[in-house]
Write a structure and sequence with these properties.
There is one protein chain. This protein is mostly helical. Helix content is 93%, strand content 0%. It is built from two helices and no strands. The chain is rod-shaped, with a radius of gyration of 44 Å.
Length: 120
């Protein structure tokens, strides 16, 4: 009878230990699942970071290119009026206007207008 009682206590203790082991196994599985999720999220974030770095580096290059384009367009804008004037002068030269009329236009109107507008 004492042996059966001892056996019952041992079995009860084994059952408790097995329940504790099962609980620890569940906790381990949850922890591993959390770890895998965190690692996957870290990989995704690393990919996003890599793409963001590439984008920023490309935008820096684009900024330099656009800055150069803006500078070139400003220069062209300054020259545009003079280029139009030169084209107009050529058209006036090959037109049926007399030399006197062309000289009057040039000296009397165009030069004064250029000076008044500050056109180089």
């Amino acid at each position: 009878e004492k042996a059966e009682r001892d056996l019952g206590e041992v079995r009860k203790h084994i059952r408790e230990v097995e329940e504790d082991c099962a609980a620890l196994d569940r906790q381990l599985m949850e922890a591993l699942a959390d770890k895998n999720n965190v690692e996957n999220q870290a990989r995704l974030n690393q990919k996003k970071l890599t793409l963001a770095e590439r984008l920023v580096n490309n935008l820096v290059d684009e900024n330099e290119r656009w800055t150069l384009s803006v500078r070139e367009n400003r220069d062209l804008g300054v020259k545009l009026v003079g280029n139009c004037l030169l084209a107009s002068a050529f058209v006036g030269y090959i037109s049926p206007f007399s030399a006197r009329l062309r000289q009057r236009l040039w000296q009397g109107m165009w030069t004064k207008d250029l000076v008044a507008r500050g056109i180089p």
